[in-house]
Amino acid sequence: MDVFLASGRAHLTEETSTEIVVVTGNESADLDSIISAITTSFFLSHLQVLGGNPIIVPFINIPKSDLALRSDVLYILSSNDINIDNVYFRDDLPLLEQFAAKNPDQLSLFLVDHNIISETMASLAGVKVKGVIDHHVDEQLYKDTAKIRRIETVGSCTSLVADEFLRRATEKAASLDHRDGEQDMDEKHRPNWIKQATRMLLGAVLIDTVNLNPDYKKVTPLDLAVAKEILPYTGWDNTDGVFGKIDKARRDTSQLSWYDLLRKDYKEWTVSRHGSDDQTVKVGFSSVTGLVEKYVKRDGVDTIHKDIKTWSKTQDLDLLVIMLSDDLGEHQGGYQRQVILNPITDKVGGFVDQFEALDEPKFERIKSIDTDSFTKEGGRAYRQHNTALSRKQLWPMARKLLTEPPSQQTPNL
User: Fold this and answer.
1) What single-letter DSSP state applies at residue 369?
2) pTM for this structure?
3) Is there a contact between 130 and 155 (Cβ–Cβ < 8 Å)?
4) Is the Cβ–Cβ distance between 246 and 377 less than 8 Å?
5) Comparing C-alpha atoms, which of 111, 214, 113 is closest to residue 159?
6) Which residues form the DHHA2 domain (predicted)?
């Protein structure tokens, strides 16, 4: 697979008449998003499903230096011999912009793990979107331009990627083999990319679905079916061991500051505030592994608040929402979620009370980080009772509160 990745790096700096398709994940750049981008780009190139034989390159929507914050991603990539120097990062965005300016009809995007061009790539908003594979709320875009448009509610976007491409890719590899007229490849004769791709895909599926455990209400029938189909190609006997290794890497936050954790798995949106024709609100969502009590004990309440303020100011936010989660084990309360709300400007006045009053999910106030200044400025921290709801579900709820007047909002959102 590295041969494929290396072949794409030179083309953006060359004069070329060939179309280039950039496969990009979302701006949180978590394991699911990054693996979806890398494997989708490979499959699109291998299968040539877009027509016209374009050059396909993966794009990771964070600065390259920030990859060091993602220990689970580093573990998966390194254990599958993927050279990150062969992948485009946000540092390379100026190259894309320059190429698009010179060749406006020769650059297009393929979105994975999101279905609307992120604000960090707003400079390419005019570029044609040729494909979408995602598992978030459907924004109803790109229906006229996307040759592949698949948006389904599943546990992991990589499940959709595998279901869309893997069977065709392995069948093509088998048809090219022709060894003694055999149609099925044994493990010895499979090309190396099959093991690389399936191990990366299944690793992401396992993390997103907590090892396919239905108790966490993340896994869907498609995730289960894909995992069952993928496993024989990986060379693994079962999923338990590899899940444990990846999850251990993901949960190890010992080398990351609280500030780093706020920016590690982060998304932001700008929406129009209801009641105003021209007022916009910028909202950031950080997802953090570990509950807030852990970081209060490690770093202190003052550091927690200082870094929240600094990150909010750095991103020029009106509202920062921090979602925390951890599995404390069967005898310590199991899987838990918390939410911290940090309103910064008057533009989000009233939001905290509305959010707290939601019937679903139910929130219970916790005071682990309460200070006079934090609560006076509207800050709140909560335990979230319905742990099945992640950022994927909470952001649409928050957006509705911000953009629609109360008279248009349904009681349970």
Assistant:
1) T
2) 0.91
3) no
4) no
5) 113
6) 243-402
Q: What digits encode the pLDDT tens for the residues 215-250? A: 999 999 999 999 999 999 999 999 999 999 999 999
62-112 pLDDT, tens digit each: 999 999 999 999 999 999 999 999 999 999 999 999 999 998 899 999 999
Superfamily for domain range 258-408: DHHA2 domain (3.10.310.20)
* Fold topology of 1-252: inorganic pyrophosphatase (n-terminal core) (3.90.1640)
All structural domains of the chain with their residue ranges: 1-252, 258-408
Say how far apart CA 357 and CA 353 lie, in whole Å. 6
Q: Which helix (H) or strand (E) holds 322?
A: strand 319-327
CA angle 153, 46, 59 (to 5 degrees): 60
Ramachandran region, residue 212 (left: φ > 0; alpha: ψ -120 to 50; beta: rest): left
Determine how many CB atoms are found less than 10 A away from the CB of residue 278.
6
| Interatomic CA distance for residues 114 and 228, integer angstroms | 25
- Whole-angstrom distance, CA of residue 284 vs CA of residue 323: 11
Q: What is the CA radius of gyration of the chain?
A: 22
CA 126, distance to chain mean position in Å, is: 23
Please state, in angstroms and rounded to a whole number, the distance separating the CA atoms of residues 301 and 232: 48
Q: For residue 13, which amino acid is it?
A: T
Give residue-wise pLDDT tens across range 277-300: 679 999 999 999 999 999 999 999
- Structure confidence at residue 177 (pLDDT): 58
